[in-house]
Amino acid sequence: MKGLRQTAIGLLENSLLKTGKVLGVRYWEPASFVEIDLHLPGVDMSGWDHAQHVKCRVGPLTYRDYSPAGWDWETRTCTLYVDARHTGPGSAWAKSVQPGEKFGYAGIGHTPYPPQPLSSLIFLGDESSIGHFLALYQLLPRTSSVSGAIAFSERAHQDNFTDFLRLPLEPLSGHNGTLPALQDWIAGASFPLDDTLFYLAGNAHMVQAVRKLLKAKGVNPDGIKAQGFWK
């Protein structure tokens, strides 16, 4: 009976899934960070005005949300940036997926905070925030002033970020922890409290701690937009 029930559940799941195709996979060395190029033929990207998340099937009845970045609405392609340092089904999927494979996803939804074209925008996060921040940056007018920092556990990933990605953010060494690296950056930074918007993204516990630190420095809570990711 258990086997029949699992088979029925699997058939129902497959009937509800949408399908895309993996076009390319690139690993940063060490191979705990993965770029995955996707073709999503059934997705209209032309109206995207928020950062989005794709609910990817990474195992039977198991899903993880990843932010599509660098999308092209005409070709309906995009790239996922997956921090795969942690043990789990999402990391296992990202490390094993191959170009040419089909993959299933349950849908696409937008994140809660649209990008605001204010005079000063500050992004703060860890490696898992890269796709989210790239998506926000793609939506901003080029007149926006963006700064901030991303903390990396791997020094080689810092170098890849600087060499290959066009985000005006400072890569920080987080070998003693991403939170201490961001705390040190905030302590040494000078930024206006008025007309400044902070976007926080990454590990949920880290995001919560950075939010508290900014509030303690006098940042208005309305000026902090936080997106925490669970590992």
Give the helices and strands, then pairings.
Blueprint: H1 2-16, E1 18-28, E2 33-39, E3 52-59, E4 62-66, E5 68-72, E6 77-83, H2 89-96, E7 102-110, E8 120-126, H3 130-139, E9 146-152, H4 155-164, E10 170-173, H5 178-188, E11 196-203, H6 204-216, E12 224-229
Parallel strand pairs: 8-9, 8-11, 9-10, 11-12
Antiparallel strand pairs: 1-2, 1-7, 2-6, 3-4, 3-7, 5-6
Helix pairs in contact: 5-6
Short key terms for the protein model shown above:
alpha/beta; Elongation Factor Tu (Ef-tu), domain 3; 7-stranded antiparallel sheet; globular; Rossmann fold; single chain; 231 residues; 29% helix; 5-stranded parallel sheet
Quick summary of this structure?
With 231 residues, the chain is α/β, with parallel strands linked by helices. 29% of the residues lie in helices and 36% in strands. The mean pLDDT is 91.
Describe this structure in words.
The chain is built from 6 helices and 12 strands. With about 230 residues, it is α/β, with parallel strands linked by helices. The chain folds into 2 domains: about 15-110, Beta Barrel (Elongation Factor Tu (Ef-tu), domain 3); about 120-230, Nucleotide-binding domain of ferredoxin-NADP reductase (FNR) module (Rossmann fold, 3-Layer(aba) Sandwich). The chain starts with a helix and ends with a strand. The relative contact order is 0.14.
